[in-house]
């Protein structure tokens, strides 16, 4: 199974939408949530781009906006 990381922050409605979409394709145990405000480096990298999904070990990223179909193709 593919593991994905969701870069997000609390109170971001787009991040909540991205997580809801991601849960449709992966079990929650396969999703790592990283709140960008917990680390200065991730904050600098993602503050203007969240939500961003990083796929497994390939480190490929899919940034918002994306559709459910684009997400499904990204994960496949």
UniProtKB/TrEMBL annotation:
InterPro entries: Glutaredoxin-like (IPR008554), Glutaredoxin-like_YDR286C (IPR052565), Thioredoxin-like_sf (IPR036249). It comes from the Bacteria. Pfam families: Glrx-like (PF05768). PANTHER family: GLUTAREDOXIN-LIKE PROTEIN C5ORF63 HOMOLOG. This is NrdH-redoxin. It comes from Pseudoalteromonas piscicida. The lineage of its organism: Bacteria, Pseudomonadati, Pseudomonadota, Gammaproteobacteria, Alteromonadales.
